[in-house]
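User: Hi! I'm working on a homework problem where we have to compare a predicted structure to a textbook description. Could you give me the structure for the chain below?
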Amino acid sequence: MSIQTRIEDALREAMRSQRALERDTLRMVLADLKNQRIEKGQDLSEAEELAVIGRNVKTRKESARQYTDAGRQELADQELAEIVIVEAYLPTQLGADEVRASIAAVIAEEGLDGKQDLGRLMKVLMSRHRGEIDGGQARAWAAELLA
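Assistant: Happy to help. Predicted structure tokens:
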């Protein structure tokens, strides 16, 4: 079952149960998936669906941060609640220790040393763990380990 199909099923259930926040959030995610499919001109692969959902979460996190900075905590809380709903369709995120262990493993396997190898490290790391780690946080830890 594709991710989009799972979201559509969850949307129907949210509509039946009259869960407005979940219904509206899932509709926005489906709209993003549809827009990407139209832009591409063909059906999306599972990896592409995950990328769209990941961008959706990233955008919501940034919105929540901006709302918090502007003193609009109620809107930030709504964005955070929507993030919880959307993240249910992403693969389980690796913990900090697992990410650091993966970074150390890539450094050892590839024989990397120094900040000049950061790009190569991130390329290998993200290809192995697409959707399972936060790239920004992983980059910070990788730079720390390569220093």
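For your comparison, note the following. The helical segments are 3-16, 20-40, 46-69, 73-87, 96-110, 118-128, 135-146. The domain at 3-87 is CATH 1.10.1510.10 (Hypothetical Protein Yqey; Chain: A; domain1). Good luck with the assignment!
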